[in-house]
Amino acid sequence: MQEVVLGLLGLGNIGGGVWDLIRTFGDEVETRTGMRLRVKKALVLDKRFHGGHEVPEEVLTTDGAEILEDPEIQIVCEFLGGEQPAASMMLRALENGKCVVTANKMALSLHLDELRAMAQKTGAGLYFEASVGGAIPVLTSIQSPLIANHIEQMMGIVNGTTNYILTRMAAEGAEYETVLKDAQRLGLAEPDPTADVEGMDAAYKLSIMGSLAFHSRIHMEDIYREGITKVTAEDIAFGREMGYVLKLLAIGKDNGESIEARVHPAFLPAEHPLARVDGSLNAIYLYGHSFKDMMLEGRGAGDAPTASAIVGDIILAARNRTHPVAYFRPDPLPVADDWQSKYFIRMKAKDAPGVLAEVTGLLAGEGISVSAMMQKGAAPGGKATLIVITHSAPEKAVRRVVEALNPEICQVENVIRVEG
After folding, report:
1. pTM of the full predicted structure?
2. Could you list the residue range(s) of the whole structural domain that residue 412 is in?
3. Which of 56, 260, 334, 409 falls between 20 and 30 A from 192, CA-CA?
């Protein structure tokens, strides 16, 4: 039997979930793996408060050095969240030759280069499967069974809060603010939901996932990001009428010369596998030159699913004599600031001759053709709702059309990309 000595940085939701899983399921893990997991120290802000978990007094510490500098502790598990001091403490653990296991997508996204470099320098392991998709093994899949592939495309529903909100809006015809308040009341959205609803959480995950899939570093500042706060029940209803389902997607594409990296709401055809992923579930759709289509789906957040992935990484770290380091190409591909997509454009237009001709004329002037069009009866004030769905077109060209439309006769109310 091999004893694996652990130090936990934090005992919040995820740290407490890992502690509980080791305490209640550790014997079974030992039976299956031959490894006994022992938590020697757990860092807390105050020893009086540790989430109600049954933690012996001698395990608790308020001094991170008791974990980072203890030669007996082999693996440091980071659960502090946020950028700092989490990134600095992980860097110190790696510098001291300790493996690090984390689910911290923010610290990883912003500091992956230096953490990876330190792990390579000291030979310590950096494991972070739980940082994207909770218990969904997407990062392991990309780095191991799918390694002999050129992954050309990924699209992910990687934020459960926004997926829950959009699912409710679609099912009930409710507006965003109403569903958000319910999600906050149920504990599915934070009191300050900005990181989720503005797409930052998904962008951190895309930075990590895309860097590994395309072997080229994708930094947060290079990811185009747009949240769901401008989505209306009207958009979702019109999209459904035209055969589409709306999701907040993290999208990465590698065309060999550049990489697309973007997070935004997107309509998917109703038959697309991601379109049926509802509620707080997460899913990642991948396309590779050899395996073709694949989708991984499951619980992407929560203390128990995340703890499951963390413990899996602990076992991997303890088993490996040498620790894998993700390969990034020495000449990273540029991240594109323009891309091809279809577009759903919702407008309020004067119900008068010549309006459609102006819209289609501006589109044609940019080389953009129309795939579908729908008009709803005149609204108060003599304006009708006009929906145009384009064929695939450059992002910048569509923006030029939107800016050129005369708001006196045709006012654009929303533009949503169409994928799939």
Report:
1. 0.95
2. 340-418
3. 260
**Which position has the token pair 């009086």?**
48
Judge if 23 and 94 occupy the same domain. Answer: yes
* Residue of 41, 105, 205, 350 marked catalytic: 205
Strand pairing category for 282-288 and 259-269: unpaired
Query: Given the structure tokens 């001291």, which residue do they identify?
Result: 96
Element (H, E) at 28: helix 13-33
Per the structure block, which two tokens stand in for 199?
A: 């797409």
Q: 10 pLDDT band (50/70/90 cuts)? A: very high
CA dist., res. 199 & res. 229, Å (int): 10
Pairing of strands 35-43, 60-61: parallel
- Express each pLDDT in 368-388 by its tens digit: 999 999 988 765 567 889 999
Q: Is 205 a catalytic residue?
A: yes
Instruction: Please name the residue ranges forming H helices in 135-247.
Output: 138-143, 160-172, 176-185, 194-197, 200-214, 233-241
Pair 270, 175 in one domain = yes
Identify whether 31 is part of a domain. yes
268 contacts 286 by C-beta, under 8 angstroms: no
Which residues, 6 or more positions from 58, have their beta carbon under 8 angstroms from its beta carbon? none
